[in-house]
């Protein structure tokens, strides 16, 4: 992805935290010569060899997995908050723009065994059921229900490269105070989140 140098975030620990918090991503590869994308949870984990990996699964009915050849290179996209930035908030004339956070991860995909896929599903459910008042556990489900695992393809992606764009008005420092005030005035969650990230980065 094209990222002007002043918008690059090369703090890997911070970017990994972003991936964990925004793990519902987009898996992109090529199928029959055309781009193919699926929206799925992609969990950042550490493999037994110590390398960072993304773990996920898709339905076997989804033809995308048929392009999961050995050592296939794939792209995973993670989107964060975004907000329109009006140039009426600037001291000098300029065109409007958009602030956003986005992370692209490139990696090598390998298919998991059925046993490994089931283990990954257990980890996934346990993670997201933690805050539930009555958490569901796959351990409590019948073999008949769990047979659905045969209808999915699990995979692991060894991460080769991470690209992180944090476009937070870094080139408009003289306008930050007004931009922050206007974003907070808008009131929607995305605008407030962008304002929070601007505050954080300007004070770091």
Please give the radius of gyration in angstroms: 20 Å
Order of helices and strands: HEEEEEEHHEHH
Q: Class, according to the CATH hierarchy?
A: Mainly Beta
CATH topology-level name: Pnp Oxidase, Chain A
Assigned CATH superfamily: Electron Transport, Fmn-binding Protein, Chain A
Helix tally? 5
Query: The biggest beta sheet, please?
Result: 7 strands, antiparallel
Strand content: 35-45%
Q: Whole-Å distance between the termini?
A: 25 Å
Mean pLDDT: 93
Instruction: Label the structural class.
Output: alpha+beta
CATH architecture verdict? Roll
Protein architecture, described:
The chain has 204 residues and is an alpha+beta fold. The protein has one domain: Pnp Oxidase, Chain A, CATH 2.30.110.10. Helices cover 27% and strands 36% of the residues. It has a seven-stranded antiparallel β-sheet with strand order 2-1-5-6-7-4-3. The mean pLDDT is 93.
């Amino acid at each position: 992805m094209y990222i002007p140098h002043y918008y690059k975030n090369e703090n890997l620990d911070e970017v990994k935290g972003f991936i964990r918090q925004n793990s519902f991503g987009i898996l992109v590869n090529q199928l029959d010569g055309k781009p193919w994308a699926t929206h799925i949870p992609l969990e950042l984990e550490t493999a037994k060899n110590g390398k960072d990996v993304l773990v996920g699964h898709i339905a076997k009915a989804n033809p995308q997995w048929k392009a999961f050849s050995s050592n296939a290179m794939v792209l995973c996209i993670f989107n964060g908050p975004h907000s329109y930035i009006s140039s009426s908030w600037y001291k000098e004339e300029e065109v409007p723009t958009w602030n956003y956070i986005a992370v692209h991860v490139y990696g090598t995909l390998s298919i998991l065994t059925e046993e490994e896929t089931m283990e990954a599903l257990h980890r996934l459910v346990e993670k997201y059921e933690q805050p539930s008042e009555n958490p569901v556990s796959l351990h409590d489900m019948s073999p008949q229900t769990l047979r659905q695992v045969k209808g999915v393809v699990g995979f692991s992606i060894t991460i080769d490269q991470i690209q992180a764009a944090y476009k937070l008005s870094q080139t408009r420092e003289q306008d930050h105070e007004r931009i922050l005030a206007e974003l907070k005035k808008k009131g929607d969650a995305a605008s407030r989140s962008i304002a929070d990230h601007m505050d954080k980065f300007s004070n770091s």
